[in-house]
Amino acid sequence: xxxxxxxxxxxxxxxxxxxxxxxxxxxxxxxxxxxxxxxxxxxxxxxxxxxxxxxxxxxxxxxxxxxxxxxxxxxxxxxxxxxxxxxxxxxxxxxxxxxxxxxxxxxxxxxxxxxxxxxxxxxxxxxxxxxxxxxxxxxxxxxxxxxxxxxxxxxxxxxxxxxxxxxxxxxxxxxxxxxxxxxxxxxxxxx
Length: 191
Hints:
Blueprint lengths: L4 H34 L6 E2 L11 E10 L6 E4 L3 E5 L4 E8 L6 E10 L7 E6 L5 E3 L4 E10 L14 E11 L3 H14 L1
Parallel strand pairs: 1-7, 2-10
Antiparallel strand pairs: 2-4, 3-5, 5-9, 6-8, 6-10, 7-9
């Protein structure tokens, strides 16, 4: 059965809308994958272990901390900077404190600058890989283990990078299911 002109146009328009919706839905995961693979926008990589090759070249790593405007935690790096050799494993800590009277959950986003170093800054372990929950008045030190990939010295855009800034921003997120039940139970016990 052949479609008339107006029916064919409606079917084509619906097809375009469905295609555009699918592309919009896939754009965020695709962009995240692209950034992880290329280091675009200062996105760091993830590695299971540091390389065996450690160079004599030193790079300064600076640590930066911020939080979303509605995040009630206090959040800062324990030390502002450290020097590591390229390929050497570094260990840094960030401190978070929950000054409120209720548990607060948070998730950290991160990047490095200059952006050209993003693909070479590799994290082995990081508090940013998981959501964090701090109890009322709780203060914690959260570690990040990292290295700068020796391949950075072969990249014409990144080979002269001598300082890399690792930045985290903490955002408040919903408490995991188990915490919400504990909070309700605590409220009923105090009344």
